[in-house]
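Need residues for this backbone.
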């Protein structure tokens, strides 16, 4: 029998060998790849990737903020004394002015379980603390946007949203308000959080978050 020969790697391959390779090796591989492509295409059609919807699902519109409060003072000097004393035992706290009082805060979260766990840890050390729950009324677009970015910052701190999700929200906020002169200080405080996260400083992250919540609740810094 006469065969047509093909030169591969210096060796000659018969027609029968080529048919064998095609049917028993190449065709199954091609079938698998084709099936994978079809399944991915169908999944994308059924579940189109929408980055904005992913972020929206992670940032609930009715999300509450929980502050772990270690004290309340009517005098700023007394608030600073408590903060200094806590620092001596490696507990970092920060204050913000809420109307006529100064609230001493050591942690912040959108998770009631997380903040409750931290409360129990501090109480075992003999520290008295309460959980302050904050709800915001979003009356205008700025309040809504501020609320969304602060919630995203808290969730990023707690590992509940990705850095990419947070960047998407923050970049949209900065783009919308970067040319508004009235927003310069607010954007500066928001970016303080970005810097703290970048250098991975938990103390600075909490400090920045508390300042941003103070802005959001219209407290005085």
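Answer:
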């Amino acid at each position: 029998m006469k065969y047509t020969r093909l030169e591969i790697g210096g060796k000659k391959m018969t027609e029968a060998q080529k048919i064998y390779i095609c049917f028993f090796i190449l065709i199954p591989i091609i079938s698998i790849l084709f099936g994978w492509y079809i399944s991915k295409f169908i999944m994308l059609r059924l579940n189109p990737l929408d980055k904005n919807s992913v972020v929206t699902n992670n940032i609930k519109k009715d999300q509450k903020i929980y502050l772990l409060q270690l004290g309340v003072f009517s005098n700023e000097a007394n608030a600073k004394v408590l903060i200094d004393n806590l620092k001596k035992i490696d507990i970092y706290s920060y204050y913000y002015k809420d109307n006529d009082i100064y609230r001493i805060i050591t942690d912040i979260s959108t998770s009631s379980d997380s903040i409750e766990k931290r409360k129990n840890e501090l109480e075992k050390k003999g520290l008295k603390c309460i959980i302050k729950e904050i709800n915001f009324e979003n009356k205008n677009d700025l309040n809504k946007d501020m609320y969304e970015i602060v919630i995203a910052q808290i969730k990023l701190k707690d590992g509940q949203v990705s850095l990419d999700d947070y960047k998407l929200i923050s970049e949209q906020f900065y783009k919308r308000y970067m040319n508004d002169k009235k927003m310069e200080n607010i954007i500066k405080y928001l970016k303080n959080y970005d810097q703290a996260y970048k250098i991975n400083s938990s103390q600075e992250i909490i400090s920045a978050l508390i300042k941003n919540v103070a802005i959001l609740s219209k407290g005085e810094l």
